[in-house]
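Handoff note, outgoing to incoming analyst
You'll be picking up this chain. Sequence as last confirmed:
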Amino acid sequence: MPSVIDNSCIKCGLCASICPVSAMHLADTQMVIDPEVCIDCGACIAECPQGAITPDSEASAETVQFNAEQAKIAPSA
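Most recent structure output, in case you need it:
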């Protein structure tokens, strides 16, 4: 199961710098994770200074949907 980023994200980009598969995308208000690219390695979870990244199974349905939708339209970080 992929990870997702919630709205406490500050767009610092640390998650993108550590992601081995470039699953992070910069949306208008925050970073998002493309669920089709994420390999669920968990590296970004430990790297996030805000604690904004969780497995999708622990996130709200709205957060999961927002990440998936925004990842499709946002440029890669």
